[in-house]
Amino acid sequence: MAEGVQIQGLCRFSLPCTGGFKKYHDSLTERRVALYAPARLDARCLWFEEVGLPGLALQTDPDFALHMLLGEDFPEPWRSRIEAVMAEVPQIVPHWRAPDDHRAICRDVLLSHRDPSRAVVAEFRLDDDDAVAIDYVAQLRRSWPKLARLAGPNGRVALDHGKGLVLQAHPDGRIETHALLTQCWSAGLALYLRPDDPGIVMDFPHHKIWQRVPFVNLTDAVMFIRGDHATNDARTPFAAAAALPIPEAEIPEILNRRFGIDIDGFRAAWAQLTQR
Hints:
7 helices, alpha/beta, globular, five-stranded mixed β-sheet
Protein backbone atom coordinates (compact mmCIF):
# COMPACT_ATOMS: atom_id res chain seq x y z
CA MET A 1 0.00 0.00 0.00
CA ALA A 2 1.28 3.47 -0.88
CA GLU A 3 2.28 5.50 2.16
CA GLY A 4 3.38 8.97 3.06
CA VAL A 5 3.37 12.42 1.53
CA GLN A 6 5.85 13.50 -1.11
CA ILE A 7 6.46 17.25 -1.00
CA GLN A 8 7.88 19.15 -3.95
CA GLY A 9 7.95 22.80 -4.87
CA LEU A 10 8.64 24.79 -8.01
CA CYS A 11 10.53 28.06 -8.34
CA ARG A 12 11.03 29.78 -11.70
CA PHE A 13 14.12 31.98 -11.57
CA SER A 14 14.04 34.46 -14.48
CA LEU A 15 13.21 31.60 -16.86
CA PRO A 16 12.90 32.67 -20.53
CA CYS A 17 9.80 30.92 -21.87
CA THR A 18 6.57 31.51 -23.70
CA GLY A 19 3.64 32.16 -21.41
CA GLY A 20 3.81 32.38 -17.65
CA PHE A 21 4.21 36.17 -17.43
CA LYS A 22 1.72 38.97 -16.97
CA LYS A 23 4.06 41.55 -18.45
CA TYR A 24 3.90 41.36 -22.23
CA HIS A 25 6.93 41.08 -24.51
CA ASP A 26 6.80 41.09 -28.31
CA SER A 27 9.33 38.27 -28.65
CA LEU A 28 11.29 35.73 -26.66
CA THR A 29 14.41 37.76 -27.39
CA GLU A 30 12.84 40.85 -25.84
CA ARG A 31 11.78 38.82 -22.80
CA ARG A 32 15.27 37.38 -22.36
CA VAL A 33 16.81 40.86 -22.49
CA ALA A 34 14.37 42.06 -19.82
CA LEU A 35 14.88 39.04 -17.55
CA TYR A 36 18.66 39.08 -17.81
CA ALA A 37 19.15 42.81 -17.30
CA PRO A 38 22.10 43.13 -14.89
CA ALA A 39 20.30 45.36 -12.38
CA ARG A 40 17.34 42.99 -12.33
CA LEU A 41 19.50 39.90 -11.76
CA ASP A 42 21.39 41.70 -8.99
CA ALA A 43 18.08 42.35 -7.25
CA ARG A 44 16.60 38.88 -7.78
CA CYS A 45 19.75 37.13 -6.55
CA LEU A 46 19.81 39.31 -3.45
CA TRP A 47 16.16 38.55 -2.66
CA PHE A 48 16.70 34.81 -3.04
CA GLU A 49 19.86 34.82 -0.92
CA GLU A 50 18.54 37.01 1.89
CA VAL A 51 14.81 36.18 1.94
CA GLY A 52 14.00 32.87 0.23
CA LEU A 53 17.01 30.70 0.97
CA PRO A 54 17.23 30.85 4.81
CA GLY A 55 13.81 29.34 5.41
CA LEU A 56 14.47 26.54 2.94
CA ALA A 57 17.78 25.72 4.58
CA LEU A 58 16.19 25.63 8.05
CA GLN A 59 13.14 23.44 7.29
CA THR A 60 12.41 21.30 10.34
CA ASP A 61 11.32 18.48 7.99
CA PRO A 62 14.08 17.95 5.40
CA ASP A 63 12.11 15.50 3.24
CA PHE A 64 11.20 17.77 0.32
CA ALA A 65 12.51 19.01 -3.01
CA LEU A 66 12.41 22.49 -4.52
CA HIS A 67 12.85 22.41 -8.30
CA MET A 68 14.54 25.58 -9.54
CA LEU A 69 13.88 26.36 -13.20
CA LEU A 70 16.50 28.53 -14.89
CA GLY A 71 17.41 29.25 -18.49
CA GLU A 72 20.22 27.21 -19.99
CA ASP A 73 21.81 30.52 -21.04
CA PHE A 74 21.57 32.12 -17.59
CA PRO A 75 24.46 34.61 -17.74
CA GLU A 76 27.61 34.97 -15.70
CA PRO A 77 28.51 36.13 -13.11
CA TRP A 78 25.00 35.51 -11.79
CA ARG A 79 24.99 31.85 -12.82
CA SER A 80 27.99 31.04 -10.64
CA ARG A 81 26.48 33.10 -7.83
CA ILE A 82 23.14 31.30 -7.88
CA GLU A 83 24.79 27.89 -8.32
CA ALA A 84 26.81 28.50 -5.18
CA VAL A 85 23.82 29.39 -3.02
CA MET A 86 21.66 26.57 -4.38
CA ALA A 87 24.41 24.12 -3.44
CA GLU A 88 24.00 25.18 0.20
CA VAL A 89 20.60 23.46 0.36
CA PRO A 90 20.64 19.82 -0.84
CA GLN A 91 16.88 19.82 -1.34
CA ILE A 92 17.17 22.41 -4.13
CA VAL A 93 17.31 20.72 -7.54
CA PRO A 94 18.39 23.02 -10.40
CA HIS A 95 17.03 22.54 -13.92
CA TRP A 96 18.73 24.51 -16.70
CA ARG A 97 16.21 24.54 -19.52
CA ALA A 98 15.99 25.72 -23.12
CA PRO A 99 13.17 28.15 -23.94
CA ASP A 100 9.82 26.40 -24.36
CA ASP A 101 6.21 26.72 -23.33
CA HIS A 102 6.08 27.67 -19.66
CA ARG A 103 3.43 25.11 -18.72
CA ALA A 104 5.21 22.32 -20.62
CA ILE A 105 8.47 22.91 -18.74
CA CYS A 106 6.74 22.95 -15.36
CA ARG A 107 4.75 19.82 -16.18
CA ASP A 108 7.81 17.90 -17.35
CA VAL A 109 9.77 18.70 -14.20
CA LEU A 110 7.05 18.04 -11.64
CA LEU A 111 5.57 14.92 -13.21
CA SER A 112 8.95 13.33 -13.86
CA HIS A 113 9.93 13.69 -10.20
CA ARG A 114 6.80 12.28 -8.61
CA ASP A 115 7.26 9.17 -6.48
CA PRO A 116 4.57 6.57 -7.38
CA SER A 117 5.19 4.77 -4.09
CA ARG A 118 3.78 7.70 -2.09
CA ALA A 119 0.12 8.01 -1.23
CA VAL A 120 -0.05 11.66 -2.22
CA VAL A 121 2.12 14.49 -3.49
CA ALA A 122 1.85 18.02 -2.11
CA GLU A 123 3.02 20.61 -4.66
CA PHE A 124 3.69 24.28 -3.98
CA ARG A 125 5.11 27.19 -5.93
CA LEU A 126 7.41 30.02 -4.92
CA ASP A 127 8.78 33.02 -6.71
CA ASP A 128 12.46 33.68 -6.11
CA ASP A 129 11.56 36.59 -3.80
CA ASP A 130 9.06 34.56 -1.72
CA ALA A 131 9.74 32.62 1.47
CA VAL A 132 8.05 29.97 3.60
CA ALA A 133 8.43 29.50 7.33
CA ILE A 134 10.84 26.91 8.67
CA ASP A 135 8.01 24.49 9.57
CA TYR A 136 6.16 24.78 6.26
CA VAL A 137 7.12 21.30 4.99
CA ALA A 138 6.31 19.78 8.39
CA GLN A 139 2.91 21.48 8.31
CA LEU A 140 2.11 20.11 4.85
CA ARG A 141 2.95 16.58 5.97
CA ARG A 142 1.18 16.87 9.32
CA SER A 143 -2.01 18.24 7.77
CA TRP A 144 -2.58 15.49 5.22
CA PRO A 145 -4.49 12.98 7.43
CA LYS A 146 -7.18 15.61 8.13
CA LEU A 147 -7.24 17.04 4.63
CA ALA A 148 -7.57 13.57 3.10
CA ARG A 149 -11.15 13.47 4.35
CA LEU A 150 -11.96 16.57 2.30
CA ALA A 151 -10.37 15.49 -0.96
CA GLY A 152 -12.88 15.19 -3.78
CA PRO A 153 -13.42 12.11 -5.94
CA ASN A 154 -10.27 12.98 -7.90
CA GLY A 155 -8.19 13.09 -4.72
CA ARG A 156 -7.43 16.82 -4.93
CA VAL A 157 -7.48 19.24 -2.01
CA ALA A 158 -5.61 22.49 -1.32
CA LEU A 159 -4.09 23.89 1.87
CA ASP A 160 -3.77 27.66 2.03
CA HIS A 161 -1.81 29.55 4.67
CA GLY A 162 -3.30 33.00 4.98
CA LYS A 163 -1.11 34.72 7.57
CA GLY A 164 2.00 36.26 6.11
CA LEU A 165 4.25 39.24 5.62
CA VAL A 166 4.99 41.45 2.65
CA LEU A 167 8.44 43.00 2.43
CA GLN A 168 7.95 46.11 0.32
CA ALA A 169 11.28 47.38 -1.01
CA HIS A 170 11.45 50.86 -2.50
CA PRO A 171 13.88 52.24 -5.09
CA ASP A 172 15.25 54.70 -2.51
CA GLY A 173 16.49 51.78 -0.36
CA ARG A 174 13.67 51.66 2.21
CA ILE A 175 11.96 48.39 3.14
CA GLU A 176 8.50 48.44 4.70
CA THR A 177 6.90 45.41 6.32
CA HIS A 178 3.19 44.57 6.20
CA ALA A 179 1.59 41.82 8.29
CA LEU A 180 -1.52 40.55 6.49
CA LEU A 181 -4.33 38.03 6.41
CA THR A 182 -4.83 36.78 2.87
CA GLN A 183 -6.64 34.15 0.86
CA CYS A 184 -5.19 32.06 -1.98
CA TRP A 185 -1.99 33.98 -2.60
CA SER A 186 0.60 31.86 -4.37
CA ALA A 187 3.19 31.65 -1.56
CA GLY A 188 1.95 29.40 1.23
CA LEU A 189 -0.58 27.57 -0.97
CA ALA A 190 -0.14 23.85 -1.65
CA LEU A 191 -2.15 21.39 -3.72
CA TYR A 192 -2.39 17.70 -2.79
CA LEU A 193 -2.69 15.28 -5.70
CA ARG A 194 -2.44 11.58 -6.36
CA PRO A 195 0.98 10.72 -7.82
CA ASP A 196 -0.65 9.57 -11.07
CA ASP A 197 -2.78 12.72 -11.41
CA PRO A 198 -1.98 14.38 -14.77
CA GLY A 199 -2.51 17.81 -13.20
CA ILE A 200 0.17 19.92 -11.52
CA VAL A 201 -0.03 22.88 -9.16
CA MET A 202 0.62 25.28 -12.05
CA ASP A 203 -2.61 24.16 -13.73
CA PHE A 204 -4.60 25.90 -11.01
CA PRO A 205 -4.50 29.72 -10.89
CA HIS A 206 -3.92 30.32 -7.19
CA HIS A 207 -6.53 33.07 -6.80
CA LYS A 208 -9.22 30.82 -8.32
CA ILE A 209 -8.25 27.49 -6.78
CA TRP A 210 -11.30 27.58 -4.50
CA GLN A 211 -13.43 27.24 -7.65
CA ARG A 212 -11.71 24.00 -8.63
CA VAL A 213 -10.93 21.99 -5.50
CA PRO A 214 -11.88 21.84 -1.81
CA PHE A 215 -9.52 23.99 0.20
CA VAL A 216 -8.68 24.92 3.79
CA ASN A 217 -7.24 28.27 4.87
CA LEU A 218 -5.12 28.24 8.05
CA THR A 219 -4.21 31.45 9.86
CA ASP A 220 -2.73 30.23 13.12
CA ALA A 221 0.91 31.09 12.30
CA VAL A 222 2.86 33.43 10.03
CA MET A 223 3.77 31.07 7.21
CA PHE A 224 4.85 33.03 4.13
CA ILE A 225 6.61 36.13 2.85
CA ARG A 226 5.93 37.90 -0.41
CA GLY A 227 8.49 40.26 -1.88
CA ASP A 228 7.24 43.51 -3.37
CA HIS A 229 9.58 45.61 -5.52
CA ALA A 230 10.04 47.11 -8.96
CA THR A 231 10.96 43.86 -10.73
CA ASN A 232 7.77 41.99 -9.76
CA ASP A 233 5.79 40.58 -12.67
CA ALA A 234 2.53 41.33 -10.82
CA ARG A 235 1.72 43.90 -8.17
CA THR A 236 0.84 42.87 -4.64
CA PRO A 237 -2.97 42.87 -4.13
CA PHE A 238 -2.93 44.78 -0.85
CA ALA A 239 -6.62 45.70 -1.28
CA ALA A 240 -7.55 42.01 -1.12
CA ALA A 241 -5.86 41.50 2.27
CA ALA A 242 -6.57 42.52 5.85
CA ALA A 243 -3.95 44.15 8.04
CA LEU A 244 -2.78 42.29 11.14
CA PRO A 245 -2.17 44.25 14.35
CA ILE A 246 1.41 43.09 14.82
CA PRO A 247 3.59 45.88 16.26
CA GLU A 248 6.43 46.92 13.95
CA ALA A 249 8.91 46.34 16.77
CA GLU A 250 8.04 42.62 16.80
CA ILE A 251 8.58 42.03 13.07
CA PRO A 252 12.39 41.53 13.16
CA GLU A 253 12.06 38.76 15.75
CA ILE A 254 9.28 37.06 13.76
CA LEU A 255 11.35 37.22 10.57
CA ASN A 256 14.34 35.69 12.30
CA ARG A 257 12.46 33.02 14.26
CA ARG A 258 10.04 31.95 11.55
CA PHE A 259 12.15 32.45 8.40
CA GLY A 260 15.79 32.77 9.49
CA ILE A 261 15.91 36.27 7.96
CA ASP A 262 18.19 39.01 9.24
CA ILE A 263 16.07 41.99 8.26
CA ASP A 264 18.69 44.53 9.30
CA GLY A 265 21.26 42.81 7.10
CA PHE A 266 18.81 42.67 4.20
CA ARG A 267 17.93 46.34 4.62
CA ALA A 268 21.60 47.26 4.51
CA ALA A 269 22.23 45.12 1.42
CA TRP A 270 19.17 46.51 -0.37
CA ALA A 271 20.12 50.10 0.43
CA GLN A 272 23.63 49.47 -0.90
CA LEU A 273 22.25 47.91 -4.08
CA THR A 274 19.89 50.81 -4.79
CA GLN A 275 22.66 53.38 -4.29
CA ARG A 276 24.84 52.04 -7.10
